[in-house]
Design brief:
15 helices, globular, 4 strands, four-stranded mixed β-sheet, 72% helix, mainly alpha
């Protein structure tokens, strides 16, 4: 008797939905608490706390609705054979316009085009509500409807330009890979990731945001001096106009080897009136680099990708897997999709493990910034970012342990304060 892959996948999806909804309920209860955690009393203003609480509860209520609709839709798509039906219809559409549906590359691209349109249409109401109701209500949204749809069209255009050659290459590799298929697939994805990391900040990101050099001044000098003291090969220092879309703030760095760049959101500079707070945030980010967190994360992703492709090669010709989901053929892309569904339990465990590692890295980067003498400005900067982003002040420990890749502010401040006490 064949293994019931479809039933097992849908059953696990529903189980995870119930489990994650339980965590969401716990978090919702925490968000409704009328008082600040003791660690934040006197640190966060009552006004900011009330605004944060209202914003977090709005997002939580929206998440319940979105999650319910998503699990219903995803379960129905699998149980009612929408995927095999859509695969067949994409082939019929190809033939109706004079293309050969037996060509797997053409057939796959037609299928993906339909999936992309479907995904955009079904997700659009939720995206619009999130951006123009929730974010707008709490003062974060800065983009217009025109800009929203322009970004969406640009994203679809990039998918049309980049997607076909990547999909075609993957199909050809699977068809001709032989016993070393997993190595070839991993090698292709490794090179592709390097290419994308190279061209994204130079060619793609500027399509959505404007990047300008940070003007000469004390802030630029402080960041350059900090980078120089750590032998960080800073080549360019940019400010990005994040305020054109949102008042949320951030900072990040990218680049290979001796060509590193740092990007500051203009909102970060606006919110942190004290330049030392901005520099402290950068010191935290440089801590990730100095402690090799970026390299470790990259290596972990490559190992997991290789293992994933290794697992795929074991089941890619499993007729029972395809039949269980309603397919009488074995297309490469469909095989990859079905394999992703079947390894969901492992993916959830891996994601949880990576979150634990990421949280440990965040504590280490905070400690690194503190050792550089940025304890107070880092503390003040973290508080300011928490206030300005209206991040959740009260968090359920189970929820945060499962979902958060960054520790809650309460834990980060406690770690910084504990280090200060030991130093005293």
């Amino acid at each position: 008797m064949a293994f019931p892959y479809l039933e097992a996948v849908v059953g696990f999806m529903i189980f995870m939905y119930i489990f994650e909804t339980y965590l969401d309920v716990r978090q919702h209860v925490a968000l409704k608490l009328p008082t600040l955690p003791k660690t934040l009393e006197g640190v966060i203003s009552e006004e900011k706390f009330k605004k944060s609480r209202a914003y977090s509860l709005d997002k939580s209520n929206f998440h319940f609705l979105h999650g319910f609709v998503t699990i219903l839709m995803d379960s129905a798509i699998l149980l009612y054979g929408v995927l095999p039906w859509f695969w067949k219809k994409s082939g019929d559409t190809l033939e109706s316009i004079g293309f050969d549906s037996e060509n797997e590359i053409y057939h796959t691209l037609a299928f993906l085009a339909g999936v992309m349109i479907w995904s955009q249409l079904t997700d659009l109401p939720f995206s619009l509500y999130s951006t123009f109701v929730i974010e707008e209500r709490h003062g974060f949204n800065k983009q217009t409807i025109l800009l929203f749809f322009r970004d969406m069209i640009k994203g679809m255009f990039l998918a049309v330009v980049i997607g076909p050659p990547v999909v075609a290459a993957i199909i050809l590799i699977v068809q001709k890979g032989g016993p070393y298929l997993a190595i070839y697939l991993w090698g292709f994805m490794f090179v592709l990731s390097l290419v994308m990391m190279t061209i994204y900040p130079v060619l793609i990101a500027p399509l959505f945001n404007k990047f300008t050099p940070l003007p000469d001044g004390t802030l630029r000098s402080k960041i350059e001096n900090l980078a120089s003291s750590l032998s960080f090969p800073l080549k360019k220092l940019f400010v990005v106009d994040g305020s054109t879309r949102s008042s949320h703030s951030n900072a990040y760095m990218y680049g290979f080897f001796k060509n590193k760049r740092i990007v500051l959101y203009d909102t970060l500079i606006q919110q942190c009136k004290n330049e030392e707070e901005v520099v402290a945030v950068i010191a935290h980010e440089l801590g990730h680099w100095k402690l090799n967190h970026t390299m470790y994360s990259f290596i972990a992703v490559q190992v997991l990708t290789l293992l994933q492709f290794g697992g795929y090669t074991l089941v890619k010709n499993s007729k029972d897997l395809f039949l269980s989901f309603g397919f009488d053929t074995q297309p490469v892309l469909i095989g990859l999709i079905l394999f992703q569904h079947t390894i969901q339990p492992i993916q959830h465990l891996v994601s949880f493990g990576l979150n634990l590692v990421s949280r440990a890295f965040e504590f280490q980067a905070d400690a690194f910034a503190k050792k550089l003498g940025y304890s107070k400005p880092l503390r003040d900067g973290l508080v300011k970012l928490q206030e300005e982003n209206l991040s959740a002040m009260n968090t359920d420990p189970w929820y945060s342990a499962y979902h958060y890749s960054h520790p809650p502010l309460v834990e980060r401040l406690a770690a910084i304060d504990e280090a200060d006490k030991k130093a005293d």
